[in-house]
Amino acid sequence: MINWKERIRAAAIHLGISLAVAALAALLVFGVWYPYPYRDTSGGRELFFIVVTVDVILGPLITLAVFDRAKTWRLLRRDLAVIGLIQLAALGYGLWTVFVARPVHLVFEIDRFRVVHEIEVPDTLLPQKPPGIEAFPMLGPTLLSVRQFKSSNESMDATLAAVNGMALGARPDLWQPYDAARAEVRLAARPVTQLKSRFPARAAEIDAVLARMGRSIDAVAYLPMIDRKSFWTIFVDPATGDVLGFMPLDPY
Could you give the maximum distance between any two Cα atoms of the chain, in Å? Predict the structure, then answer.
């Protein structure tokens, strides 16, 4: 006769362990790989919860199905070990998928910022990466910029590649330190007063973002930020080009 009370207790214990492991994974994903705002803009939250939900539910359900005190301890231990290994393998594969899709750089690209993800960077161009720039940082996205084109031919080639889906900001051969483009950032940035006049219905939200930054409206400028599926607004210091904050508003 099946003892459902014991099975449910075993599944509940397994669920608790699974949730604890998922919490640790969340600290890694959202604290390191997808910090704000990338957990929203780069789909980090959706990817993680798909992976973790399947994994957290899978293990306890299998335990509920196979746990039986009538089995010998050796057999029961083997069953639970196999379940744990399957669950860890599924979690590891899922986290690897989240990892390779993570944002690695926030790149200033002529007149806007672009979030670049590891899977978007072409391996063929990695040998042309400038020295001193880490291609795939492990501890969250870094600030970079796109350098000026060296010739009209390079500009044409890059433009054609961009038309075919290779964004300028994802090209290692065009990367340069962010500091090299601060003057261009300040020149391209627009006053936040323009943003408020264009989107009067979002004026209160804009003011709230400025308040969190502790800045007056005259001490902040904005630029578009492009990610996989969305456009956000990025706020910068008009005097230094420092990135100050973000807002889920398409400024186009």
Answer: 80
Q: Between 224 and 140, name the one with better pLDDT.
A: 224
Separation of alpha carbons 34 and 129, rounded Å: 24
- Do 36 and 209 touch, CB atoms closer than 8 A? no
CA–CA separation, 110 and 189 (whole Å): 11
Question: Is 0.70 surpassed by the pTM of this model?
Answer: yes
Question: Is the Cβ–Cβ distance between 145 and 107 less than 8 Å?
Answer: yes
Q: What is the three-class DSSP state of 146? A: strand
pLDDT at 183: 95
What proportions of the chain, in percent to the nearest 5, are helix, strand and coil? 60, 15, 25
To 5 degrees, how large is the angle CA 145–CA 148–CA 149?
A: 130
- Residue 99 CB coordination number (10 Å): 16
Between CA 46 and CA 56 the distance in angstroms is 15
Distance CA 25, CA 30 (A): 9
Distances (CA, A) of 105 to 26, 33, 133, 153: 21, 11, 11, 26
Q: What is the pLDDT of residues 109-132, one digit of tens each?
A: 989 999 999 999 999 999 999 999
**Residue 97 in 3-state DSSP?**
helix
